[in-house]
Specification:
Strand content: under 5%
Distance between the termini: 22 Å
Helix content: over 70%
CATH superfamily: MetI-like
Structural class: mainly alpha
CATH class: Mainly Alpha
Number of helices: 14
CATH topology: MetI-like fold
Oligomer: single chain
Largest sheet: none
């Protein structure tokens, strides 16, 4: 019986192949960020002008000491990529936490209460969504200054409308269910109904949105850093590495290729993981499977 259960478990998990791939890519990035001091072959801040623009190790002019080559001041590209994962993932995590908290509160209030509160929050959501996300983030960062902390705060406070809109529609559906009506009839306080009865039913949606939004934040942070509005040098940042290598990338493709691949794989992993979680939590797809 135990073997049969294990077989059924692996068979059910096998239906979410792309989700597993996303989880694998995401786990690689998380491990590299957590273990950066141990995985990094060299100090990402060490400069050696005599070794500047060293090609990757497999190139005929490459050096085995620098597996992925060096940048314009002789810093090891691989080490900076590994440490750059810390910046991208931490900005993504903090920004999503800020967005989720704001969006959850507004979504719950807009969905549960009708009338003036719902109208004002819905108007605010429409107003936020009418302005391009990245342009709003650029304007705020340019106003308050480019720094690591400002980047994730700005990306966090500009990313909440997605949570609020999705959760509002879910709360509108849940609040009409029989057990919520029974709780109101029994005199349960609204605050208790919202946070103890409705919110737990939204955790799946929050988790899926969070994973997908993390990929968007990582791309946005890289874009801001590429423009010089994000994390400032010499802190390793994938977007900053792209900006530093753009002038010479036609002759030395690896300067832009490796940070670009890192951004692509991380965003791909997060998106695939989010899609896998969405399919896993979707009861209709489970019934069709």
């Amino acid at each position: 019986m135990g073997r049969r259960n294990i077989f059924i478990l692996f068979r059910s998990i096998g239906k979410y192949r792309f989700g597993i791939l996303g989880a694998f890519l995401t786990m690689i990035m998380i491990v590299s960020a957590l273990l950066a001091p141990f995985l990094s072959p060299l100090d990402p801040y060490d400069q050696d002008i005599s070794k500047r623009f060293t090609p990757p190790s497999w190139h005929e002019q490459g050096n085995m000491k620098y597996l992925l080559g060096t940048d314009h001041v002789g810093r090891d590209t691989l080490s900076r990529l590994i440490y750059g994962s810390r910046i991208s993932l931490s900005v993504g995590l903090f920004a999503v936490l800020i967005s989720a908290n704001i969006g959850i509160i507004f979504g719950l209030l807009a969905g549960y209460y009708s009338g003036f509160i719902d109208s004002m929050i819905s108007y605010l959501i429409d107003l936020m969504l009418s302005v391009p996300y990245i342009l709003l983030a650029m304007a705020l960062v340019a106003t308050f200054g480019a720094s690591y902390v400002n980047v994730f705060i700005v990306l966090g406070i500009t990313g909440w409308p997605l949570y609020a809109r999705v959760l509002r529609s879910e709360v509108l559906r849940i609040r009409e269910m029989e057990y919520i009506r029974a709780a109101r009839a029994l005199g349960m306080k609204k605050r208790r109904i919202i946070f103890l009865e409705i919110l737990p039913n939204l955790l799946n949606n929050i988790l899926v949105i969070g994973t997908i939004q993390t990929a968007q934040v990582i791309i946005a942070e890289s874009f801001l850093s590429f423009l010089g509005l994000g994390v400032q040098p010499p802190i390793p940042s994938w977007g900053g590495m792209l900006a530093e290598g753009r002038e010479n990338m036609l002759e030395m493709w690896w300067l832009a290729a490796f940070p670009g691949i890192a951004i692509f794989l991380t965003a791909l992993g997060m998106n695939l993981l989010g899609d896998g979680l969405r399919d896993f939590f979707d009861p209709f797809k489970k019934k069709q499977a």
